[in-house]
């Protein structure tokens, strides 16, 4: 295999024409205009060297054919030429990279200056702006600009919009922080069963005339009398719905479960109010307070308090042969009772350091905002009423609703069905505290 040595051109001429800053390292502080000119000079020199290399190669081939070898002088010149050609190639790459860097920096500066103008000059100053506005520079110029001057500039990276602020990426917490939800408690007071019909019928005894007595032999026995009446409790539907776009349902991973939870909570909230206070009109349930017996103190207590009133209500239920098992009041009223103190400022019914469940007169106290302030309900809840569930809470999604299909919308509907039968109204006592003190 024959090697062909590339001869060199006149290095003296090339060294005289080349830019010194190109063969060496490219200055980092050179301006874009200077760098572009250097790049043009280097490319021109590189083209000229390439042409000379071509001519010298042809000369080397001729010598090889004529003499059978290439002279040492041609070999040495070729080596030096190739070395300088490599340096010129490296300089072209460095200058090209520098031009791109300077252009990028200029674009960033233009953007910062534009943002500063929009924000009324609130952006950080560049180095040049800090130097130009320095008081020390003005004083130095006024004194004749003799000697040297040192000006410190502040170019710290900050989180401001004119510095590194745009690089800060906020962290997104996927949790949806919802509004507070009320704890449902009334349903737990009452036993629940199921039904497969839309109406519950039951018989309630309305009259008991008991004439049972001792009788003598062969004497006529006394007659007693009992009267019964039929009552019914219709199954009622509690429902609501919400519109959601198909895109939102598909793109937000937690949205479907969030909506499902909200709709179910809405059903429970409405159900609690219906069980407690449904007035029985229209499609409403006949609630506990609507059918309860009005409070009537069995006897008067001098200087009665809220605690006395509740004790008398418990007594009223007991006298009706329905021993009470619970008390329902508003949290505000229970707080008033717990804060009662004796003459030495000692709490009567509460231990601030204790964790005891609310209770009074041996009965469980249930706090709920569904009960109005100053109102109470006392009774034998497990004997008083019965819930019949016809359909548990159901959440369905459909696009077949009005113009949902052409609008790419979804309707999410939630509903449940139940009946409430208050079979023993006398087991419930409803009253208010009126003007009694805590």
Describe the structure.
A six-stranded mixed sheet has the order 5-12-9-6-8-7. A hairpin with a 2-residue loop joins strand 7 and strand 8. The protein has 13 helices and twelve strands. The protein starts with 10 loop residues before the first helix and ends in a 6-residue tail after the last strand. The relative contact order is 0.10. It has two domains: 132 residues; 210 residues, Major capsid protein gp5 (Major capsid protein gp5 fold), CATH 3.30.2400. It is an alpha/beta fold and 438 residues long.
SSE arrangement:
Elements: H1 11-17, H2 20-23, H3 32-67, H4 72-118, H5 127-132, H6 135-142, E1 192-194, E2 199-209, E3 225-234, E4 236-245, H7 246-251, H8 255-277, H9 288-291, E5 293-294, H10 306-319, E6 326-329, H11 331-338, E7 359-360, E8 363-367, E9 375-379, H12 381-384, E10 385-398, H13 404-407, E11 409-422, E12 428-432
Parallel strand pairs: 1-10, 5-12, 6-8
Antiparallel strand pairs: 2-3, 4-11, 6-9, 7-8, 9-12, 10-11
Helix pairs in contact: 3-4
CATH superfamily of the largest domain: Major capsid protein gp5
Q: Can you list the strand order of the major beta sheet? A: 5-12-9-6-8-7
The separation of the N and C termini measures 116 Å
- Mean pLDDT metric: 81
Number of β-strand runs: 12
Reading the helices and strands in chain order gives HHHHHHEEEEHHHEHEHEEEHEHEE
The tally of structural domains comes to 2
Secondary structure category: alpha/beta
Q: Major beta sheet, specifics?
A: 6 strands, mixed
Indicate the CATH architecture of the largest domain.
Answer: 2-Layer Sandwich
Q: Helix coverage percent of residues?
A: 25-40%
Radius of gyration: 48 Å
Count of DSSP-assigned helices: 13
- At the fold tier of CATH, the topology name of the largest domain is Major capsid protein gp5 fold
Please identify the oligomeric state: single chain
Tell me the β content.
15-25%
What is the highest CATH level, the class of the largest domain? Answer: Alpha Beta
Q: Uncertain spans, ≥5 residues at pLDDT below 50? A: 1-30
Q: How would you sum up the global shape?
A: elongated
């Amino acid at each position: 295999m024959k090697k062909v040595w590339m001869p060199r051109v006149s290095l003296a001429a090339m060294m005289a024409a080349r830019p010194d800053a190109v063969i060496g390292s490219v200055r980092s502080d050179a301006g874009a205009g200077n760098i572009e000119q250097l790049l043009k000079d280097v490319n021109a020199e590189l083209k000229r060297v390439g042409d000379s290399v071509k001519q010298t190669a042809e000369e080397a081939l001729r010598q090889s054919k004529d003499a059978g070898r290439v002279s040492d002088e041609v070999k040495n010149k070729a080596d030096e030429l190739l070395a300088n050609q490599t340096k010129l190639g490296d300089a072209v790459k460095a200058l090209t990279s520098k031009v791109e860097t300077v252009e990028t920096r200029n674009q960033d500066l233009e953007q910062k200056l534009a943002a500063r103008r929009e924000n009324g000059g609130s952006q950080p100053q560049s180095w040049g702006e800090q130097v130009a506005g320095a008081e020390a520079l003005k004083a130095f110029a006024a004194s004749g600009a003799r000697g040297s001057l040192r000006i410190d500039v502040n170019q710290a990276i900050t989180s401001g919009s004119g510095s590194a602020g745009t690089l800060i990426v906020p962290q997104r917490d996927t949790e949806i922080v919802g509004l507070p939800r009320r704890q449902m408690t009334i349903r737990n007071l009452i036993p629940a069963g199921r039904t497969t019909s839309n109406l519950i019928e039951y018989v309630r005894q309305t009259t008991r005339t008991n004439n049972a007595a001792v009788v003598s032999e062969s004497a006529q026995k006394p007659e007693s009398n009992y009267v019964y009446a039929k009552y019914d409790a219709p199954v009622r539907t509690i429902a609501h719905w919400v519109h959601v776009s198909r895109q939102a349902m598909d793109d937000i991973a937690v949205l479907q479960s969030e909506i499902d939870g909200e709709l179910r909570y809405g059903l429970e909230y409405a159900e609690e109010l219906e069980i407690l206070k449904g007035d029985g009109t229209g499609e409403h349930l006949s609630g506990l307070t609507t059918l309860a017996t009005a409070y009537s103190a069995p006897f008067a207590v001098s200087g009665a308090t809220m605690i006395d009133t509740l004790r008398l209500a418990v007594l009223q239920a007991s006298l009706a042969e329905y021993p009470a098992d619970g008390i329902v009041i508003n949290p505000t009223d229970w707080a008033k009772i717990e804060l009662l103190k004796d003459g030495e400022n000692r709490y009567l019914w509460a231990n601030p350091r204790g964790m005891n469940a609310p209770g009074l007169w041996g009965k469980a106290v249930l706090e709920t905002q569904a009960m109005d302030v100053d109102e109470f309900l006392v009774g034998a809840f497990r004997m008083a009423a019965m819930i019949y569930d016809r359909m548990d809470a159901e959440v369905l999604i459909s696009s077949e609703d009005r113009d949902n299909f052409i609008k790419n919308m979804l309707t999410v509907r939630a509903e449940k069905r139940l009946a409430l039968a208050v079979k023993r109204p006398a087991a419930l006592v409803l009253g208010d505290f009126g003007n009694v003190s805590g």
